[in-house]
Amino acid sequence: MDRDIGFLIAELGFPIVSALAVAGALWAILRWMMHSLHGEIQDVKARIDSTHNAQMEILVKLIDRVRRLEDSVTRTEIVVRTAHNLEQEWERIGRAKGGQD
Questions:
Q1: Chain centroid to CA 8: how far?
Q2: What is the spatial distance between Cα 69 and Cα 59, in angstroms, rounded to a whole number?
Q3: CA-CA distances (angstroms) from residue 29 to 39, 64, 84?
Q4: 5 CB contacts (<8 Å, ≥6 apart)?
Q5: Half-sphere exposure of 12 (CA within 13 A, CB side)
Q6: pLDDT (tens digit, 9 = 90+) per residue, 4-63?
Q7: Residue 1 per-residue DSSP state
């Protein structure tokens, strides 16, 4: 082994051999870091996915609640306008139902 290193130093020069040794060590360190961090990255990704799913469920529930409240307000407005003999705004109500806000 020492003879091989000595031969490389004689052929290539000490700076090139030492640069190759540092590059090999850096490659080994990076490879070790990637393997050790892979599991941690997967754990974080799983937690983010579960949090995202929970937030999507909350968002869907909030949207449903807002729609129910809008329907309730519309029904209440119709009842009040009917009770006070006021003209109904059917075009506004129809537009809101048709998605043309």
A1: 50
A2: 15
A3: 17, 52, 80
A4: 17
A5: 14
A6: 888 888 888 999 999 999 999 999 999 999 988 988 899 999 999 999 999 999 999 999
A7: -
Residue 86, helix vs strand vs coil: coil
CB 16 within 8 A of CB 5: no
Contact criterion met (CB below 8 Å) for 78 and 88: yes
∠ CA 9-26-11, rounded to 5°: 10
Residue spans of beta strands (DSSP E) within the chain: none
Q: How many domains does the chain have?
A: 1
Query: Could you list the residue range(s) of the whole structural domain that residue 85 is in?
Result: 2-98
Cβ atoms of 88 and 94 closer than 8 Å = no
| Global confidence as pTM | 0.52
